[in-house]
Amino acid sequence: MRKDPIRVKGTKPNRRSFLKGMAVAAAGGAAAGRVGATGPDPAIVEKQPWMQYLGEGVDAHPYGTPSPHEAHVVRRNVEWLTADPVSSVNFTPIHELDGIITPNGLCFERHHAGIAEVDPSQHRLMINGLVDTPLVFTMEDLARFPRENHVYFLECAANSGMEWRGAQLNGCQFTHGMIHNVMYTGVPLRLILEEAGVKSSAAWVLPEGADASAMTRSIPLEKAMDDCLVAFKMNGEALRPEQGYPVRLVVPGWEGNMWVKWLRRIEVGDQPWHHREETSKYTDLLPDGRARRFTWEMDAKSVITSPSPQAPIPHGPGHTVVTGLAWSGRGTIPRVDVSLDGGVNWHQARMSGPSLTKSLHRFYHEFDWDGRPLLLQSRAHDSTGYVQPTKDMLRELRGENSIYHNNGIQTWAVSEQGIAENVEVS
Ligand SMILES: Nc1nc2c(c(=O)[nH]1)N[C@H]1C(S)=C(S)[C@@H](COP(=O)(O)O)O[C@H]1N2
Ligand SMILES: [Mo]
After folding, report:
1. Ligand 2 is a single-atom ion; what residues have CB below 5 A from it?
2. DSSP state for residue 266 in the 8-state scheme
3. What's the CA dihedral at 329, 333, 335, 337 to 10 degrees?
4. If 141 and its partner were Cys, which of 137, 211, 243, 425 is the partner (CB 3.0–4.6 Å)?
5. How many CB atoms lie within 10 A of CB 138?
6. Is 301-423 assigned to CATH 2.60.40.650?
């Protein structure tokens, strides 16, 4: 046994005194961080099983997976939301994640006809329509274009759609988990279109998926030439089948539906095609009977991921960490405010990690919880000056019938026991 069992090798003294200070500050709280309060800690003084045997060698798991203790950190669906899992959605467990990158195995899935299991050697990408030379590329051809790396969030336009009329689902995984944030490697779509030569009458492109839904969306040529990517890698490795292996379209900042997976064809045209996903779906009915259409950009939004209904406060009163995510389809997030009292008082949160355009941003707010009930809210400000609205402000503009583009402020009511619940304070 070590002589000084609390002194972890290499720990800096200032870190240690911070922890000690915190233990004192946590008066009446749990024994966490308090040394010697309840006698010797078996976790320190007893030999744990894993100290007594040799572990598995290298190559035991040629493709690594998380610790079995993290087995609860998985995508989950809400069975009653859809009739069948082949045309359905599951949700990213954002309440369990930190930083800004979504691990590949946890990126939410949205399929209209299940996952296409594409053989890359049999996959082609065709460019046709208003081009000088229609072209067909193999995956090997695509790998010979100059490629770029960018971190972007993908948010389904229906994210938080179930919350439009009031609080419904108890957990940010379900209210806000139709989002992921990934570093993509891909070829700028502009280079591929230039290779085919876009005719001067061209104004729109139509990407098409190779899955059984043959997903198609009309995208303005200006966006296609600006920052869209034909991507084949996510977070360094090949796209997962769920995310469109071997190739998907990346449409930064715009609604997830346009990010066509299993991309097989891009048609160039002079007007939009008015297909299913831009007429009967991904449109919102306004109170006067007109439909909001072509609502591509994702407005600035944020959510507190912990504490939240699936991530209660485990430690009682005292030093408490609030954390969450913020994003905007129009740029970066220079600032997030956090309220502990349902929007009466606001505190500027601490941003941490890279601030990249059209990417998730991570924020923290640390405070000394007095143990009284809380109404937690977060409010994002984006680099255009836009401020995330309340749900009432949204309903005032768009009525009660909307589903898509709900970026209203979310509230979690936290009880004296630290249990969090989805409520609405607008
Ligand atoms: N080919 C194809 N692309 C598709 C879809 C689809 O069903 N088929 N779903 C779209 C929708 S609605 C969303 S929100 C995103 C989801 O991407 P993800 O499964 O990587 O999260 O993919 C889009 N691209
Ligand atoms: Mo979507």
Report:
1. 110, 156, 256-257
2. E
3. 40
4. 137
5. 14
6. yes
Query: What does the pLDDT look like over 78-94, one tens digit per residue?
Result: 999 999 999 999 999 99
Note the CATH number of domain 79-292.
Answer: 3.90.420.10
The pLDDT tens digits of the residues spanning 301-347 come to 999 999 999 999 999 999 999 999 999 999 999 999 999 999 999 99
Going by CA atoms, what residue is nearest to atom 2 of ligand 1? Answer: 261
Measured CA to CA, the distance from residue 60 to residue 70 in angstroms comes to: 19
What is the number of the ligand closest to the CA of 114? 1
Q: What one-character-per-residue DSSP string does 294-327 give?
A: ---BPPPEEEEEESBTTB---S-SEEEEEEEEEE
Report the nearest atom of ligand 1 relative to the CA of 180. Answer: 21
Pairs from 76-80 (Cβ < 8 Å, separation ≥ 24): 76/173, 76/174, 78/169, 78/174
Residue corresponding to tokens 């030439």? 225
E strand or H helix that includes residue 412: strand 411-414
First to last CA, the chain: 56
- Candidates 304, 315, 335; CA nearest to 413 is 304
Burial of residue 217 (CB within 10 Å: 0-12, 13-18, 19+) is buried
In ligand 1, which atom is closest to the CA atom of 156? 14
pLDDT tens digits along 40-56: 999 999 999 999 999 99
What residues line ligand 1, using a CB cutoff of 6 Å? Answer: 107-112, 154, 156, 180, 209, 211, 213, 215, 242-243, 256-257, 259-262
| Nearest by Cα to 336 from 314, 353, 311 | 353
Using most ligand atoms within 8 A of CB, pick from 87, 206, 257 the residue to mutate for ligand 1. Answer: 257
Domain ranges of the chain: 79-292, 301-423
